[in-house]
Amino acid sequence: PRRSRGPGPAGAMGPELEPLLQAWSYFRRRKFGQCSELCSQLLKRPPAEQVAASTLQAFYVILIQAAWSLKTRALTEMVYVDEIDIDEEGIAEMMLDENAIAQVARPGTSLKLPGTSQGGGPSPAVRPVTQSGRPITGFVRPSTQSGRPSTMEQAIKTPRTGLTARPITSASGRYGRLGTASMITNPDGPFINLSRLNLAKYAQKPKLAKALFEYIFHHENDVKNALDLAALATEHAQFKDWWWKVQIGKCYYRLGLYREAEKQFKSALKQQDMVDTILYLAKVYLRLDQPVTALNVFKQGLDRFPGEVTLICGIARIYEEMNNISLAAEHYKDVLKQDNTHVEAIACIGSNHFYSDQPEMALRFYRRLLQMGVHNCQLFNNLGLCCFYAQQYDMTLSSFERALFLAENEEETADVWYNLGHVAVGIGDLNLAYQCFKLTLVNNNDYAEAYNNLAVLEMQKGHIEQARALLQTASSLAPHLYEPHFNFAILSEKVGDLQRSYTAAQKSEEAFPGHVDTQQLIQQLKEHFAML
Amino acid sequence: MSLFKARDWWSTILGEKEEFDQGCLCVADVDNSGSGQDKIIVGSYMGYLRIFNPHPVKPGDGVQPEDLLLEVQLREPILQVEVGKFVSGTEGLHLAVLHCRKLCVYAVSGTLGNVEHGNQYQIKLMYEHNLQRTACNMTYGPFGGVKGRDLICIQSMDGMLMLFEQESYAFGRFLPGFLLPGPLTYSSRTDSFITVSSCRQVESYKYQVLAFATDADERQEAEQQKRSSGKRLAVDWVLNIGEQALDIRVVCFDQAVSSVFVLGERNFFCLKDNGQIRFMKKLDYSPSCFIPYCSVKEGTINTLVGNHNKILNVYQDVTLKWAAQLPHIPVSVKVANLQDLQGVIVTLSDDGHLQCSYLGTDPSVFQAPRVESREINYEEYDAEMKELQKIIKEATITQDILPKPEKHRDLVVTAEVSPNLDAESQAIDSEVKAEAVPSVTVKITIQSRVTAQKPNLAVCVQAPLAVTCDQFFFDDLEPDSSETVVLSVFLKGNCSPSELEGNCFVSYDIATGIPKVAQCNFKLPLQLICSPAQPSKAANHKLTIDTNKPPVSFLTIFSDFVDPSEEDQANVLGFQFLTGSKTTLLASKTSQRYRIQSDQLEDLWLITKELTLRLEEHFKKQNCKDFACTFSGSIPLQEYFELIDRHFELRLNAEKFQELLSERAVQFRAIERRLLTRFKDKTPAPLQHLDTLLEGTFREVIALADAAEENQANMFQAFTKLKSATHLVIMLISLWQKLSTDQVAILEATFLPLAEDTQELGWEETVDAAVSYLLRTCLSKSSKEQALTLSSQLSMPKDTSRLKKNITLFCDRLAKGGRLSLSTDSATQQAAVIPGGCTTIPESDLEERIVIPGSTPTLPNQGKITKQKSKP
């Protein structure tokens, strides 16, 4: 439709707004597509139509700038993802880590040594662990799978299933996909051609520069140019604008210059306390593997902004990663005191209760999530398990049924079948259990736990060879689990193959040093060897 | 995510396809009824102005006709509606309506009718201002501290603040550094205007300062072009919040200190009067509107924040007190007193959904969709279950891990080698230095009796032979259809192959999706790699094969190599390999012997094999069953060992190269790291020729890699020769000792492992392990030898002396009558040997069930709680 500038006569379609005003209103209502389209129309319009008289030249420039800036912001918002939540560490970053201070960190000061639990975290016998040896958390975050393998070889040899594969460097990884639109081809070519921008010119104009920076950083994902712009702009602002410092820090972080990023964030905090800056700084420390410093940063932040949920949640996450489950749970409870709709906190407390033998409590938390409108496979799966362990058998199967119904991919289906297998083992229906585990493997061929459990069932049937093969598969798929090793050790010991039993037992001990049965087995084997 | 929903008290939908935004909703006692009852005033971008006075009989009632007090269509879009004391001489409330280019102030009045629906309301225009610039939003208040009346300040799209003292225009001022308008509000305590500029700063301008600054209009006339160069409007205070704001509100309640609330796009700020942050909260959602209102608790302020997830959050300072689900995304939220009900939440969505609601514990009506459930017929289910169990049992009883042996082939693949060489050679990229490299055509046919999906044919011949095309993809095959492909085989590498055979595989899925494989082998003619030549008398290596039948003329058995016209070739025949070496075949005229001679040991193999094969074939044709070849001379072990040494030496070389390469690579990385720290340094230090060093190391690495590659090629050739020689040795041993086919198979398994020859696991150690195993088991002399333990891991030996010793010993033992067999007495077997033939005990054999008492293997007790993926 034709849009007239200024107050036009009320047509059949009703009165119309001025396009820039309309675009601005669309932007405020987050209708970015419409906003960007309107701005494009504004920008396309030939100057002759706009500029009736030469006196309006200056206005025209302003108008064009405003439309340009608005479109930049709209395009950015369309793909915006909070930078704090993005975290990905590629193999190259992990292994060529030049920021490590000590090869062997003291207990409790590093995230690299997961085994150092002081808070009385549950043992792997009770709570399953991830590949890096941390207890499984109740909430999937980008960084939950971060475990640092100790050598390059191990990093590359870690079974690279679809769920654990990590990119060689983060530059090639998810950044390219998460929150950027640089891959989306635009029929008219890119809105802003970065190579032709005179960054120095824009850096002089703070009102344009900030929007432009966000566009380059989030939309184009071009960290280098973004950094150039930010560096020029902060200079132009005489290093008095904390916002630019934070942006430079963000760029440095992406480029892997953590110490430089730290400097920028600290300097920004000196000028102005901001929650985001604190979060970024803590993120840097976490990447530098200094969880204790990160904790301090959070705590100082809490002094300034008491009750800030993101800060408390950050503390809780660190404690969780450091295996200090009780403190983590405490902080998650603090989070709930501030914001009782916090899904992550509810889920984590729920799973804590579940693994500390309080399925009834866990059930209440999960039910709360359900009431709040979370409606997915994982939740029903957890509800089903809680119901089973809380002896509410009537709800168990229907929960699992729903979970299967809601499963979005084969991995989720596999998880549900695996847990159903557990239920079947619990009620003694070994045939059903066998079928469940088989179905798990049909859905996810890399499910080490299912292989292990299937092996146990085979062992009870007396199929030694099959059990052995299954256990070997399980231990090669998931070397971090102690169960396959231990079962293999027992199996080998029973058939008299003491040598293999001993090696397997040693692997089991490596995976779970505190396992009493393993220790007893090793002791027994050693006595055997001594006798020989 | 919220537990409860906002309870609907009264709601309506305004107009059709009308648009509303932040300024379009206002709540006030606009008709000055004096009852303290608020009316809801809504303007739309389509120009409709509506005033409501909701009074539902009971909560949740629909809209009654008399709720709508007034509806007029104004001719222009309504950007904002506000109610205040806008008319001079009276303290009554009037309605200000902001259009794009006009500001109108109306008086709203009602005339009471006899009955309620007889009430009449009308608006009367008090005054209007035409605006020079497009307006954007406005604020009002007692600017400059005037008592009893409100002044209006309008912000235009291009950044001018226009101030109106009721009926008259006061002045206009440009905001400095303006680009796009931000929210605007007036703080009466500090008498200043607060806005958020495009530089993402909260800026506060004193009214006084504005009033005394250069007038925008004058300035515009003076310096039309350079707007920004005028005297800057002095800012009272600035706070950089680093984001754009959606709205600003100033609150000044009795119990709380006066504060400025700013709703940013990602955070929510509360500022002090002087612009310092009192508190802030990071929002994990996209807010759409907010309103601070009074709190019950001393010193705190409650705020309602609406967001784009249709949730209305109630915060007490930063603590979330309540969250309520709304049916729409609010663009504006107000708190009103309606019908003696205090604190009704009024929300407006951008498509005209107007709702008055209150908080309550009505659960948010989230209902999990029903799982498809049927009436359960237990009998049917039981029957079906039994059926399925039966199928499962049948499937598991025949060991489901191993595939069932196939009784009849669904898909047959046949290969046919053409008897003659190609008239025109198809060889490509051959490295052989002969002038013509012949090729031979192979025709492969796939016949399918069932539907084969995505059949995929792979043809492979042992290097140095090669095929013109080794992969073929076909469309799905119909039942009883066939496909034929033609390809050519030729000699590619510059050495003779160790066997003249090839095989082809077809992989395909049958209709049920199960992958299957069919394969066949084909034999290649000898002409492919050698041609007849002049026999030579002298040679380094000679072999004599005895037979028990009179000699056969080469004219009959090697008809393809002998020209029938040349009589003298009947018992002497020369072969010229493409790679250059020669082999001569001689038949004794008197005795039943054949002699093969050549300069290279490995070249004897193919000819010897061909000879025995053709002799056997010849005698088979003559129905002569007792034909046999024998070998009586000594096995040419010494020559064989030379080949082993040659191969081993190359392996040692390869290891050396690998070590050197890794050394250089480490050096390269070290230099790189140094360079990186240099470059990252804030104060750049000189490179000190590190770059030259880097370049040099790089070249070394490349040179080493080239050398390693060459060595690898040599090693490959050496290995092919070794394989040929091994074949020969195996053949000679079997002829010599007259071994049965089973024993030959063991011999082949021992000397020709299937594994590839690699640096980590090479031929020498594999064969050594196999030979020593045989020596310790079936060829052992005493039980003492059996006790020797196997080293558990194979690794590259230091030299080949042990291997040679073992092979010599092996031959000795065979000569002394050792028998090759794997099924030796199990009592003398080592326990470490894996029980072979892994047939499992069938399920029915209950007696044999192994019970593991005591320490039963633990089930991992992980009720694996899978992770929550949901995001709020």
From TrEMBL, chain A:
Biased segments, Polar residues type: 142-153
GO CC field: BBSome; ciliary basal body; non-motile cilium
Transmembrane regions listed in the UniProt entry: none
Region of interest (Disordered), residue spans: 114-154
Origin superkingdom: Eukaryota
PROSITE patterns: TPR
Extent of the TPR repeats: 448-481
Pfam families, alphabetized: TPR_8
Record-level GO BP terms: non-motile cilium assembly
This protein's record includes keyword Transferase: no
Keyword tags: TPR repeat
Annotated SMART domains: TPR (SM00028)
PANTHER family: TETRATRICOPEPTIDE REPEAT PROTEIN 8
Full protein name: TTC8 protein
Species of the source: Crotophaga sulcirostris (Groove-billed ani)
Lineage of source species: Eukaryota, Metazoa, Chordata, Craniata, Vertebrata
From TrEMBL, chain B:
A Pfam family recorded for this sequence: PTHB1_pf
Residue span(s) of domain PTHB1 hairpin: 634-737
Domain PTHB1 GAE: 435-522
Gene Ontology CC terms, in alphabetical order: BBSome; membrane
Domain PTHB1 C-terminal helix bundle: start-end pairs: 739-814
Keyword Kinase listed: no
Annotated keywords: Coiled coil
GO BP annotations, alphabetical order: cilium assembly
Coiled-coil intervals: 371-398
Alphabetized InterPro entries for the sequence: PHTB1_GAE_dom, PHTB1_N_dom, PTHB1, PTHB1_CtH_dom, PTHB1_hp_dom, PTHB1_pf_dom
All residue ranges annotated as the PTHB1 platform domain in the record: 525-632
Domain PTHB1 N-terminal positions: 1-363
Name of the protein in question: PTHB1 protein
Source organism per UniProt: Crotophaga sulcirostris
